[in-house]
Amino acid sequence: MKKTFLLALLAFAGYTTHAQTQGAVQKLGIGAEVVLPVSQGSSGVLGLGASLKYEHPIAPALNFTLSGGYVNLFSTERGASESLNLIPLKAGAKYYFGKGFYGATELGASILSGDGESVTAFTFAPGLGVSLASKSKNNVDIGLRYENLSANGGSLSLLGLRIGYNFGL
Fold first, then answer.
1. Keywords in UniProt for this one (predicted)?
2. What are the residues facing 121 on neighbouring strands?
3. Is residue 39 within 8 Å of 159, Cβ to Cβ?
4. Non-local CB neighbours of 59 within 8 Å, separated by 6+ positions
5. Percentage of residues in the chain with pLDDT exceeding 90?
6. Which of 4, 36, 58, 65 is the most exposed place for a label (fewest CB within 10 A)?
7. 80: helix, coil or strand?
8. Taking a C-beta distance cutoff of 8 angstroms, is the pair 96, 23 a contact?
9. Measured in Å, how far apart are the chain's first and last C-alpha atoms?
10. How many CB atoms lie under 10 A from the CB of residue 81?
11. What is the pLDDT of residues 86-132, one digit of tens each?
12. What is the rounded CA–CA span in Å between residue 70 and residue 87?
């Protein structure tokens, strides 16, 4: 039900997007992140955070991206006080299909820390989203991604939702 609602929202948003924000333009955005681990054994965990994203056009419908942020993964179960801090640093590409819809992929490193320990993990994050025009070159960005972090023979898989505001530069 939630997936159907999100897909319907993205479809509606795509049809209401204005032409001036379609395609690749230089942008700097700030966003709120909600992350849900989907790895086995990660039930009862939720992540909340913020991110910055820079986009630079390299072709008419293609942007180079740089992003970084902070997410706190914490337990939602009673009595549990464990938390894990996640600092992703990624570079990638975002391709605009038209009407504000895009596909993106990023690669990079994420620093995971908690309980006095930290580890750096290789990060791969493909996703889909839509940019909704607000005024001139500025827009609201809604993106859904799958993110996989791999380190020391183990991995962590996340499903992330980013809602951001992009400022056209």
1. Signal
2. 110
3. no
4. 24
5. 67
6. 4
7. coil
8. yes
9. 38
10. 7
11. 999 999 999 999 989 999 999 999 999 988 889 999 999 999 999 99
12. 5
* CA–CA distance, 41 with 91 (Å, rounded to integer): 29
Give the dihedral of Cα atoms 65, 17, 60, 63; nearest 10 deg.
0
Non-local (6+) Cβ contacts of 29 within 8 A are 52, 53, 54, 55, 141, 164, 165, 166, 167
> Domains of the chain (ranges plus CATH)?
2-168 (2.40.160.20)
Burial of 45 by CB count in 10 Å (0-12 exposed, 13-18 middle, 19+ buried)? buried
Instruction: Quote the CA–CA distance of 72 and 35 in Å, as a whole number.
Output: 9
Q: What is residue 20's DSSP assignment?
A: G
- Tell me which amino acid residue 133 is: A
Side chain identity, residue 3: K
pLDDT digits (tens, 9 = 90+) for 6-38: 444 445 444 444 434 456 789 999 999 999 999
